[in-house]
Amino acid sequence: MAEFQWFKEDTRLATGLDGMRIENKGHISTLTFFNVSEKDYGNYTCVATNKLGITNASITLYEGQGFVSEDEYLEISDIKRDQSGEYECSALDDVAAPDVRKVKITVNYPPYISKAKNTGVSVGQKGILSCEASAVPMAEFQWFKEDTRYLESRNGACLKQS
């Protein structure tokens, strides 16, 4: 079993110091700070000793860094429509289960008419013209005959959206 000692610069730290805790469990030693302040900044060294020898590891705690991870981001260059959807960000370490958050990205794109069908119909019968488009946000449809826009029902023609 290993024995651990923690040092700040060249001064040995004792268990139960104000604002920090040293916890030794088996082959792991943890130095935990509570409410980190400027007086805590500096070089820390953990020295581990057992019957096979001695080893140490050091870390520097300084303003703006501490033990906090940097931000992480996913950049999607030249994004395409099919890349819309839900993505997961997972932050993990060896202390606990990962923290997972879902984020949604919606790719906006202009209307694209995917289906427009010509129709032949006999006089007196019902003629239906249809047009399908995909867009985000959803497209608004407008119908024109020659240069005149159909706004509402006119001469037996009725606009309907499915």
TrEMBL record:
Query: Taking every annotated instance into account, which residue ranges of this chain make up the domain Ig-like?
Result: 1-60, 110-162
Q: Which domain of life is it from?
A: Eukaryota
Q: What is the topology of this protein in the membrane according to its UniProt annotation?
A: Lipid-anchor; GPI-anchor
Give any Pfam family that matches.
ig
Spell out the GO cellular component terms annotated for this protein, sorted alphabetically and separated by semicolons: plasma membrane; side of membrane
Which SUPFAM superfamilies does this one have? Immunoglobulin
Q: What is its main location?
A: membrane
Location comes to: Cell membrane
Keyword Signal carried by entry: yes
Q: A GO biological process this protein is involved in?
A: cell adhesion
Q: Which UniProt keywords are given for this protein, alphabetically ordered? A: Cell adhesion, Cell membrane, Disulfide bond, Glycoprotein, GPI-anchor, Immunoglobulin domain, Lipoprotein, Membrane, Repeat, Signal
Q: Which family is this sequence assigned to?
A: Belongs to the immunoglobulin superfamily. IgLON family.
Name of the molecule in the record? OPCML
